[in-house]
Amino acid sequence: MGNGVREGQVDFKRQDAEPVTPAHLPSEDKQEKKKVLNSLMSGALAGAVAKTAVAPLDRTKIMFQGESCWLSQNEAYRLIYRTYLNEGFWSLWRGNSATMVRVIPYAAIQFCAHEEYKQLLGSYYGFQGKALTPFPRFIAGSLAGTTAAMLTYPLDMVRARMAVTPKEMYSNIVHVFIRISREEGLKTLYRGFTPTILGVIPYAGLSFFTYETLKKLHADHSGKSQPSPPERLLFGACAGLIGQSASYPLDVVRRRMQTAGVMGHTYSSILLTMQEIIREEGLIRGLYKGLSMNWVKGPIAVGISFTTFDLTQILLRKLQHSTNVER
């Protein structure tokens, strides 16, 4: 018994020497789970608030993109007014329930995936804990958008159908799924999927890249670690303007392919759809139809989305910190 401790006795010195983790302190796994949960909740709220705010413009844009004749921006706003007169105020939000069913998981997945991809790329490129350089910043955004789009695409298809059809045709979201599956086949739920992914890569990549870059430039030049809410809205608006302008033609192609079954058209591929649009309507008037409206809607929606996400994340962290302190 060279250590001076008899059998049955407790070696208090040895116990004191071992690091003891208090039960109330969260482990790394718990912290990571909380971080993911916070991102999912913040992203879901961000998407819901942003899309609801611009729902009337969003519905009009989809109707715009589905038409083969040229409509000016003034005609678009007159279309909103006529819809209000003929179908009532709440008809301007027709299809918004389908949008919420899609956008809540889409935004939750996209924002959460972006946080995870930033962390993974930061580890890979050696920027752990620091802002990513431009190329990884773009890649993180593109991967986040692609991940979200792949997992929620059928819901986007349903939303597009509800936006361009009278309410008598589809009574609810489930009815859209049933009718499309029965009358057009399950493959129809993924019509327009390829142009969606091709459009998401530049859209999400440039949106997240622009927003993160502007926040970094702001921190470098102002000396403040966090921008104010109005500054976040402005950065998000710039991100939306750049991202949506870059990917807009593919967005038009996607909408045409999604709504072809109810609009009397048949589009078999991206290139053929583009060719038909350009031949019948022209390059600018066809592939950029409704873009001027998107320059109003897009920056507002993306600005609200990014700002809501960031502020919700900050609020949740503060609440969790205060809860841990109280314990």
Describe the structure.
It is a single chain. With 327 residues, the protein is mainly alpha-helical. Among the domains are: 86-189, no CATH class; 191-289, no CATH class. The chain has 12 helices and no strands. It has helices spanning 12-17, 28-53, 55-66, 73-87, 96-125, 134-164, 173-183, 193-222, 229-263, 270-281, 283-287, 291-326. The two termini are 42 Å apart. Mean pLDDT is 81; it is low at 5-25. Keywords: Membrane, Mitochondrion, Mitochondrion inner membrane, Repeat, Transmembrane, Transmembrane helix, Transport. One of its GO terms (cellular component) is mitochondrial inner membrane. This is Mitochondrial coenzyme A transporter SLC25A42. It catalyses: dADP(in) + ADP(out) = dADP(out) + ADP(in); ADP(out) + CoA(in) = ADP(in) + CoA(out); AMP(in) + ADP(out) = AMP(out) + ADP(in); ADP(in) + ATP(out) = ADP(out) + ATP(in).
